[in-house]
Amino acid sequence: xxxxxxxxxxxxxxxxxGKHRGEVNSSAFSPNGQTLLTASDxxxxxxxxxxxxxxxxxxxxHTGPVKFCRFSPDGRLFASTSCDCTIRLWxxxxxxxxxxxxGHQRSVETVSFSPDSRQLASGGWxxxxxxxxxxxxxxxxxxxxxxxxxxxSDFSPSADCLATGSWDSTVRIWxxxxxxxxxxxxxxxxxxxxxxxxxxxxxxxxxxGSWDKTIRIWKPQTANLLVQLKGHVTWVKSLAFSPxxxxxxxxxxxxxxxxxxxxxxxxxxxxxGILDVAHxxxxxxxxxxxxxxxxD
Length: 296
Known about the structure:
0% of the residues lie in helices and 50% in strands.
């Protein structure tokens, strides 16, 4: 999809990455779109060349299923989370584990990097949100407030705030600015189901997706709901804003991927039948849409 007027989206290339020995729980594209990460129930993290489908690495180390993975914004690192209650930080160039972060008491379900790649946030089934220093691996803050499992997280573009989504059906916005030792937070309420994904836009708007099959776009500073998007037939698994913020793409836990006009709230495109389950969607810097997931 280009950054001008929206046109008909066409499926360009479909690649199959088929060497997993367990269910794929998560996938993530590198910032330049050239590498795909996949996290599997087999306890391994896989790296793939997006264009060719070539396996670059298969990395063990976790002692349980790998639940989530994400690249750092600078593309130099990636993180993986697991049912083994740990987060692992990896060096992309060497495909080597640099740190094992321990502190969660149950499965870690989400991880996100700050825009400068210096900090990391994690959340999981222990209802805790933890903030870490990437370089040292030290925990900086423990953020408490959610009433159920924390399943998603994203830093604001300024890194002043962290958004987290939970099975308590709320999104919480944590104020991370210096001088607030006990991070202040406020709730965004309105979803009637578990919050499965959150995503900031470049200008600081926030989108949240839920098991209630809807997406909400918020102005998080004021907790104002700007628009509600309806049309998915299953829960919403992944969200991404286009670089120009004109569109939001959403992947449901189904064969359906939708593209929305952020101004009108209307669905302008639906892609069906490519994947059995769409795990993640992302835009490359030049505005191309990438989608990954599971297929028979």
